[in-house]
Give the backbone structure.
Amino acid sequence: MADSNNNRISRKLKYPERFREWQQFAGFNERQIIATVGQLHTVRYQIDVEDIELDGIRLLFFADLHCGIHFSRLLSKALIQSINQAEADIVICGGDLLARSFDQQLTKDILSACRAKSSKIAVLGNWECYDKSKLDADAWREFYQQCGFTLLRNQSMSRNKLNFYGIDDIKTGMLVFSSSTGQGYNILLSHNPDTVIHIADDTNLAHFDVALCGHTHAGQLRIPLFGALASSSRYGRKFDCGHFMHRRFTDVNMFISAGIGTSAFPWRLNCPPEIMVIDLVTKTDNKRRLP
C-alpha cells in the first residue's frame, strides 16, 4: 500500500466546465436489476476489458450505510445476504457509515459479515469526518481493520492486475491525487462523484479506467417520469445515479450507486437501497455468471 504526498488539490472548483464532458450512459431506470432481497436491489454492470487475466473478476460496491437509529435490522440482514450471495472477488465500501446517529456495533457486525474472495477495501465519506462520529482518521482506520477492510485515504493498493486508489472526500478531506498507477486496470474509489469531476483533467483521466462513487443516494426521493427531486451533488441532478462515460476519454467509466441508508430525512421514495456488482469481462467473452 502506497501513500501519495504530492499533487495536493484544492477543494475549490476552478474548472466548472469539466462536468459537461461526462455523459450518462445508463441512468437510474436503465440499470440491470439482477436480484432483490426485500427492498434491497442488486444492480449489475459489465465492463469490457482487454486483459484476459481480468476476465471474470467481480467487484461489489456499496456506500452510504448511514447506520443509526433509522437503520432497519431487516435491511442489515438483507444487505449481508445480498453481498455474500454475489460471491465477489473484492468488496468495496464507499463511505458514510453514519448519519445524525451511529450504531457502531451494528455497523461493525455488518462489515465483518461481508465476505470477499480476495480483499475488502474502503474509503471515507464526508460523515466520518463530522464531530458526530467521535472517531479521528486513525480510529477509522482501526475500525475498518477490525472488520477486515483496508481503508485507503489518498492511498493505493494492488491485487493481481487491479490497482485501487482511494481518494479523500471533497467536502471534508484533503484531496491528493496520485499519478503513479501500476500496470494493469486502475480503479478510482471516491465517496463523492464531485471529487472525480474536480480532479478529472486530461492528465488525471489518463491514469484510471473506472471510478466508483456513492454519496448522492440517487436523490432519495424520486418522482416517476421526472426522477430525483434534488441531489447532494454540486451539479444538481446530473450525477444522481448510474453509469457515466467521458465524452473524449471513452474508455473512462464512472459508476454512482444509489446507496443503502438515508441521511437528511429517514425515508426513500421510488428509490430502493442497492448494492452494485461490476463484472470485468474480456471483449471476446461477455457471458458471465449472475449471483
